[in-house]
From TrEMBL:
<feature type="compositionally biased region" description="Acidic residues">
    <location>
        <begin position="239"/>
        <end position="248"/>
    </location>
</feature>
<feature type="domain" description="Reverse transcriptase Ty1/copia-type">
    <location>
        <begin position="35"/>
        <end position="113"/>
    </location>
</feature>
<dbReference type="InterPro" id="IPR013103">
    <property type="entry name" value="RVT_2"/>
</dbReference>
<dbReference type="Pfam" id="PF07727">
    <property type="entry name" value="RVT_2"/>
</dbReference>
<protein>
    <recommendedName>
        <fullName>Reverse transcriptase Ty1/copia-type domain-containing protein</fullName>
    </recommendedName>
</protein>
<feature type="region of interest" description="Disordered">
    <location>
        <begin position="224"/>
        <end position="248"/>
    </location>
</feature>
Length: 248
């Protein structure tokens, strides 16, 4: 029996496919479905072909071969070096054009020494609020967040900071958003890579640094988890200082 179920998540409709006839055989197969695109991954080529044949008999579908582009992520392969990479150059170019930053000069980093964020940078009067209403701040932060979640872990910290001010952003926050875009402009060819490794190793790095948020005396922990040769998870969290005396 094949059943197709629809569910919603954050306003985006997701398709969930359940194939009861093949449930016992799909343990080594990873399937991702987004709208009308399906991505299959498996180390067992026989199982992969069997799955495609099974689905072709039940659905009107077209096999496009090896995946090269899915949900704004470009997939790169170097089989001779056993490297799999993912990048978002096309997506970044699209974001740049959308926010009229496609001709901007690049910068060396998304956040530089001395950059600070605070509530004092928020809009403080009606004139400033009216000015910010014409600026797509929340949309820009959301666009950066998608790149951060998919391939650009290097902007996780600053995007998390800028996301705190979406209710009442100020021009200083908007300038910081554009600085992140300028950084992406110069690093759009960066790629998240996975290498084959025979060493099954779990690695977790979690440096703690003082937050750039002047409103909170806190540390920010950025945890990067890696399984074997590829990053698996990136998490940013904030902890309040227990001893305020250590801060000037």
């Amino acid at each position: 029996m094949v059943t197709l179920k629809y569910s919603g998540s954050n306003g985006v409709r997701e398709h969930i496919l359940r194939m009861n006839d093949m449930a016992s055989q799909l343990k080594g197969l990873d399937m991702k479905i987004s709208e009308d695109d399906i991505l299959l991954a498996s180390s067992d080529m026989h199982m992969l072909h069997e799955t495609k044949n099974f689905m072709s008999k039940n659905f009107d579908m077209k096999d496009l071969g090896e995946a090269s582009y899915v949900i704004c992520i470009e997939i790169h392969r170097d089989r001779s070096r056993e490297i799999l990479g993912s990048s978002q150059r096309a997506y970044i170019d699209k974001v740049m054009k959308r926010f009229n930053m496609h001709n901007c000069a690049p910068t060396i980093g998304p956040i530089l020494k001395g950059d600070k964020f605070s509530l004092l940078q928020c809009s403080r009067n009606q004139l400033e609020q009216d000015e910010m209403e014409r600026i797509p701040y929340a949309s820009a932060v959301g666009s950066l967040m998608y790149a951060q979640v998919c391939t650009r872990l290097d902007i996780a910290y600053v995007v998390g900071m800028l996301g705190r001010y979406q209710i009442n952003p100020g021009m200083g926050h908007w300038k910081a958003v554009k600085k992140v875009m300028r950084y992406l402009q110069g690093t759009k060819d960066f790629m998240l890579t996975y290498r084959k490794s025979d060493n099954f190793e779990f690695f977790c790095k979690s440096p703690r640094v003082a937050s750039n948020d002047l409103n909170r005396r806190s540390y920010v922990s950025n945890r990067l988890s890696s399984l074997s040769s590829g990053p698996r998870e990136s998490v940013s969290s904030t902890d309040d200082f227990e001893d305020l005396g250590i801060v000037e």
